[in-house]
Amino acid sequence: MKMPWVQGVEMARARTGWRLALAADLLREPDATIGAVARQVGYGSSFALSTAFKRVHGMSPQEHRRAVTTGTQVVTAQSGTVVLPRRVS
């Protein structure tokens, strides 16, 4: 049996992961500011979102947006994010 505080930690991690996945999706919209995305996913400031995003994804929200809009492949692993160059046909 797990202790209640352990379950709370796991739930907090899951919630953070969900919020950051949603933020990554919202960052695909070129007109959405980082501050607006932060507020939409429940962060109080763009700085708070950027700090959490970089900790989990290994890059800032702006770097993520740039990678997505230039067509580079962004692969998120538990250890961080890897940006692969776009294939040239």
UniProtKB/TrEMBL annotation:
It comes from the Bacteria. GO terms for molecular function: DNA-binding transcription factor activity; sequence-specific DNA binding. Residues 19-67 form the HTH araC/xylS-type domain. Keywords: DNA-binding, Transcription, Transcription regulation. This is HTH araC/xylS-type domain-containing protein. The lineage of its organism: Bacteria, Bacillati, Actinomycetota, Actinomycetes, Pseudonocardiales.
